Amino acid sequence: MKIGLKILACFILLMSCSEEQLDETGTGTIKGRVVDVRAYTGIENARVSSSPTTSTVYTDKDGYFRIEKVPQGKYAFQAQKDGFIARFVPATIEKDIEIEVIFELEVSTATNKPPTVPVLTAPANNVTGQALSLDLTWTATDPESDPLTYVVTVKNGTTDEVKTYSGLTATTLKITGLNYSTKYYWQVSANDGINKPTNSVTNSFTTLAFPNPRYLYVKRVKNNNVIYTADAAGNELQLSSSEINSYRPVKNLSINKIAFISSDGSANQIYTMNPDGTNTRKITNFIPIAGFNMEHVTYSWSKNGSQFIYPNFDKLYRINADGSGLVQLYKTPNGKFISECVWSQDGQQIVLKVNDNSGYNVEIYVINPSGKLLYTVLSGVTGAASGIDISLDNKKIVYTRDVSGYENATYRRLDSRIFVYTVASNTSAELDTQKEDGFNDLDVKLSPNEAEVIFVNTSNDGLSAKNIQTAKLNDNESRTTLFQNASMPDWK
Question: What is the domain partition of the chain in residue ranges?
Answer without folding.
Answer: 25-105, 119-207, 215-491
